[in-house]
């Protein structure tokens, strides 16, 4: 296994440009593919999760041309008509590819098998399949009930009233909303349970609007979408920088600044994870907010106690910032960390204890008390890009750390360690 030794970093300073948002990139690619018209997508993320969406679209006959650096894509829309692929669609561990494709393909004529990495087969999808089956979709589990892989016989879906459980992942509702305009009639979706990760629904509704489809959101309880629509290409669309990826540089500057300019997200960001910057202000970071960039400096850091349900990805970064804050940090209402790339609550607790922190791992929370001294250790990353990136904060805090399998950042940020090194002193 590859290992990366990060030497102690005494200061970070300079400027970084964020890669495009994963959440926006995969939503935009799928809607561009389903559209009438050709869409030029700028600042597309080049990472594993996006590659899986691109190869699935190619297998279904969608023409996509990529610039040499793979950040500009020209997508020739198929106006809702996809080909039956010859092989199963392999979607890695990309939730933003697997879940939306499940709903959309169930409403598109053709036969499809959706497969993924072993971990994908442990990530639930039953709430989405239940809702689609209630609408008449023909979706079959190929191994275990409620989990991928799936076989889908696409067919006309009539729409109507449907309930969906929103308590495990917002991606199920995102998927249903993205498919709903393809249904013959109108759809009204009612949420069962408390909807998690709400800001991702705003991203979905925002992107759908850019492709000409309105969603009526009644207080995150019911959502209405008109049927019988074809997405309309906006012709040119720009992917904002990735706000979850920004979290590592915000944290690094707060711990070891220097001054770091982070280009690509700012006060106008459409991504909920920009909320991490507000949390870091509470922790003690000094942040200047611009329209499309943040400038972050170090501060006196103190532990906070937050409900992180709205920012599940960026909140992981707070767990390693906690190592360098005064007093304990609590991150609450994050049960669904357990069903992501790995069981992130268990993995974070284990690795934080290895560096010396005192950790309480609850069913849906984690409390971290910083250690007196940081142990030199290697960090297991569980094929989870965010664990690898989060634990680079140990080096940023002035302590050598060894990251096992650093290549796992390829899921969303293949150049992460080079970018961190470019601002490290
Ligand atoms: O819709 C999206 O783009 C995402 C939603 C979130 O998942 P959950 O809704 O499962 O929390 C987030 O963790 C994931 O990285 C991306
Ligand atoms: C949870 C994540 O990914 P996915 O889109 O596969 O759910 C993530 O990127 O942290």
Please give a structural write-up.
It is a single chain. This protein is of the alpha/beta class and 425 residues long. It has two domains: 3-18 and 240-423, Enolpyruvate transferase domain (UDP-n-acetylglucosamine1-carboxyvinyl-transferase, Chain, Alpha-beta prism); 22-229, UDP-n-acetylglucosamine1-carboxyvinyl-transferase, Chain (Alpha-beta prism), CATH 3.65.10.10. Helices cover 30% and strands 24% of the residues. It is built from 13 helices and 23 strands. The protein has helices spanning 22-34, 48-59, 95-106, 126-134, 171-179, 199-210, 243-256, 275-283, 315-321, 344-355, 385-390, 392-396, 416-422; strands spanning 3-6, 12-17, 38-42, 63-66, 73-76, 89-90, 110-115, 138-141, 150-154, 160-165, 187-192, 215-218, 222-225, 236-238, 257-263, 286-289, 293-297, 305-307, 329-332, 358-361, 365-369, 378-379, 401-404. The strands form six sheets. It has a four-stranded mixed beta sheet with strand order 2-15-17-16. Strands 4-5-3-14 form a four-stranded mixed beta sheet, with helices on one face. A four-stranded mixed beta sheet has the order 6-7-9-8. A hairpin with a 3-residue loop joins β16 (286-289) and β17. α1 packs parallel to α2. It is globular, with a radius of gyration of 21 Å. The mean pLDDT is 98. The protein binds shikimate-3-phosphate and phosphoenolpyruvate. Phosphoenolpyruvate is lined by residues 93-96, 313, 340-341, 386, 412.
């Amino acid at each position: 296994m590859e290992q990366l030794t990060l030497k102690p970093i005494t200061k970070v300073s300079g400027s970084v440009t964020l890669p495009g948002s994963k959440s926006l990139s995969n939503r935009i690619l799928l809607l561009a593919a389903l559209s009438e018209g050709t869409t030029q997508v700028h600042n597309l993320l080049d990472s594993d999760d996006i590659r899986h969406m691109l190869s699935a679209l190619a297998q279904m006959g969608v023409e996509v041309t990529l610039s040499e650096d793979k950040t500009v894509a020209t997508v020739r829309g198929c106006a809702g008509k996809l080909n039956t692929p010859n092989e199963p669609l392999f979607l890695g561990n990309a939730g933003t590819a697997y879940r939306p494709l499940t709903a959309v393909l169930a409403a598109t004529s053709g036969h499809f098998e959706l497969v993924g990495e072993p971990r994908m087969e442990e990530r639930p999808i039953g709430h989405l399949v239940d809702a689609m089956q209630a609408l008449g979709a023909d979706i079959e589990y190929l191994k275990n009930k409620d989990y991928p892989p799936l076989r889908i016989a696409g067919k006309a879906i009539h729409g109507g009233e449907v309930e969906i459980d929103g308590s495990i992942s917002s991606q199920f509702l995102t998927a249903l909303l993205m498919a709903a305009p393809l249904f013959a009639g109108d759809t009204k979706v009612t949420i069962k349970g408390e909807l998690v990760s709400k800001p991702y629904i705003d991203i979905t509704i925002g992107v759908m609007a850019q492709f000409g489809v309105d969603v009526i959101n009644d207080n995150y309880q019911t959502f209405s979408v008109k049927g019988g629509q074809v997405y309309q290409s906006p012709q040119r669309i720009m992917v904002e920088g990735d706000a979850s990826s920004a979290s590592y540089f915000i944290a690094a500057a707060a711990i070891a600044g220097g001054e770091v300019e982070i280009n690509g997200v700012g006060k106008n960001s459409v991504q909920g994870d920009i909320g991490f910057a507000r949390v870091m202000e509470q922790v003690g970071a000094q942040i200047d907010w611009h329209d499309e960039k943040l400038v972050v400096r170090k501060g006196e850091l103190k532990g906070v106690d937050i409900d992180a349900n709205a920012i599940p990805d960026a909140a992981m970064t707070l767990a390693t910032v906690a190592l360098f804050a005064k007093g304990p940090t609590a991150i609450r209402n994050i049960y669904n960390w357990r069903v992501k790339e790995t069981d992130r609550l268990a993995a974070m607790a284990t690795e934080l204890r290895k560096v010396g922190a005192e950790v309480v791992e609850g069913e849906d929370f984690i409390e971290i008390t910083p250690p007196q001294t940081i142990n030199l250790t290697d960090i297991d990353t569980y094929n989870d890009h965010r664990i690898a990136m989060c634990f680079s904060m140990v080096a940023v805090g002035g302590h050598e750390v060894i990251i096992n399998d650093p290549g796992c950042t390829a899921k969303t940020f293949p150049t992460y360690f080079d970018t961190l090194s470019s601002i490290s002193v």
